[in-house]
Write a structure and sequence with these properties.
CATH class of the largest domain: Mainly Alpha
Helix content: 55-70%
Strand order of the largest sheet: 1-2
CATH architecture of the largest domain: Orthogonal Bundle
Distance between the termini: 38 Å
Oligomer: single chain
Structural class: mainly alpha
Number of helices: 18
Number of strands: 8
Shape: globular
Radius of gyration: 24 Å
């Protein structure tokens, strides 16, 4: 506790860091307030009556509410949250691998990055314009209690247009808040907003689980769940932080009449165990939902079989297929993120080499072999993390609390918290203060030692 209080004092002493943290907290507060402002014309009383008990209900609804901080289930002006921007960013990233024009912008430096950001914002608006009518039609219209709908009785074309525009504006405002946090605050703003939205649901989910265990007279169950949750978080931190360090040597250069050895702190190439992040889980879950959307309600196309196998997120078949897809997508996305040939070329141009390995093609093959070996345990870890919520549900944990035992929510929380702590520690160390943790360094998801090939 003494160490913690001293860390707080050190953070408060750094004026720039203090201002950035206060600004970040203020913008996060604005985002949280926005998630409770209901769309104009919506009857919140009906909405409350139709809402299921905490921790129960549709898994997809719980997941969407988790990433929007409750804005989805509250039918708020920020119901779409930050996810349309994430989807647009993923699309632009994939286009960068297939479209030469986007690849050219990626290689243009700061000017190219600004152009890509503008295109991403435009694509975000398009995605919001497609998602907003679907959200109102499929979710809001279904909120009916004793014949009374949550939507206005006289919902005409003007109301629909206004609701769609408000949802689009709310999502873009959330994007603006995230960008301001990134520029003027601390940490990655978009990721922080998602993390705050996830953490905001944790107390409610835990209290629902506690109430359920208390009603059953089995409080030992809660203690075991908390211990298992902490163990899963620790294991996730170990894997997220895990790297395979490849030693590097740098050729000597001659300055005047003496040789200068440039080999220093950056004498290794870190290969991350989980280089692909949460993307394989996102891709795999998206693929699993496509057949259900295509064949739902059509018995002539075998919808009953699809719903039995892929429509049950807690079923054995669903989780086995999900795990296999995650393993495949982990290799696929790692191959996109890490280019051994480009890394080998960069090392050759900078005069660096791996001891015992010839520069050029042999170095590329060596790195490719190591990446393949490291990716296998990383893919198994992601698959295990993805199916943990289903295992927790089968063990009797409610839907909302089970979401925190794994999946994208846990990986995002761990990654963002580590990245934010790493930035705070950098400010403290630059002011010649002690780090956040005695005798160690906080490492984020990206380190200064990583090369541009990552």
């Amino acid at each position: 506790m003494k160490r913690f209080i001293q860390n707080i004092k050190n953070i408060w002493k750094v004026e720039e860091l203090r201002k950035r943290i206060l600004l970040t907290l203020g913008l996060i507060l604005v985002y949280r307030i926005g998630s409770f402002i209901v769309l104009p014309g919506i009857d919140y009383t009906v909405l409350e009556k139709t809402r299921s008990n905490p921790g129960e209900g549709n898994m997809i609804e719980n997941l969407l509410s988790l990433f929007s901080g409750g804005g989805f289930s509250n039918v708020s002006v920020m119901a779409l949250g930050i996810m349309p921007y994430i989807s647009a960013s993923i699309i632009m990233q994939l286009l960068g691998m297939a479209v030469p024009a986007v690849q050219k912008m990626q290689n243009e430096g700061e000017s190219g990055r600004k152009r890509i950001n503008n295109y991403t914002r435009v694509l975000t608006i398009i995605i919001c314009a497609l998602q907003a009518p679907s959200y109102v039609t499929l979710y809001v219209q279904g909120k009916v209690w004793e014949g009374v709908s949550a939507m206005p009785m006289d919902a005409d074309a003007f109301w629909w247009s206004r609701a769609i525009l408000v949802l689009i504006a709310g999502s873009m405002f959330a994007v603006w808040l995230g960008e301001r946090i990134t520029d003027k605050g601390i940490g990655n703003g978009i990721s922080l907003l998602i993390t705050v939205g996830i953490l905001a649901r944790l107390p409610e989910a835990f209290l629902a689980e506690y109430g359920k265990a208390n009603a059953e007279g089995n409080l030992l169950k809660i203690l075991l769940e908390v211990i298992l949750f902490m163990a899963v978080v620790l294991a996730t931190i170990l894997i997220v932080q895990g790297v395979r360090k490849i030693p590097l040597n740098t050729a000597k250069r001659v300055v005047g009449a003496r040789a200068v050895d440039e080999q220093g702190a950056r004498s290794y190439l870190p290969i991350k165990v989980n280089a692909s992040g949460v993307m394989p889980i996102i891709f795999a879950q998206a693929i699993m939902t496509i057949p259900v959307m295509l064949f739902a309600g059509d018995p002539t196309k075998g919808s009953s079989f699809i719903e039995r196998t892929l429509g049950d997120p807690y079923g054995v078949t669903y989780n086995v297929l999900l795990a296999l897809l995650i393993i495949v997508f982990t290799y696929f996305y790692t191959a996109i993120m890490i280019n051994p040939r480009k890394i080998a070329d960069d090392l050759k141009r900078s005069g660096g080499f791996i001891p015992g390995v010839r520069p050029g093609e042999e170095t590329a093959e060596y790195i490719d072999t190591l990446v393949s070996r490291i990716t296998f345990p990383g893919s198994l870890f992601l698959a295990a993390i993805a199916i943990l919520p289903s295992l927790a549900k089968l063990a009797g944990v409610n839907d909302a609390f089970a979401m925190f035992f794994g999946g994208t929510s846990l990986l995002i929380m761990v990654g963002v918290v580590l990245d934010t702590l790493q930035q705070i520690e950098s400010y403290l160390l630059n002011r010649h203060m002690d780090g956040l943790m005695e005798g160690t360094r906080v490492r984020g998801r990206r380190t200064d030692n990583e090369l541009s090939g990552f």
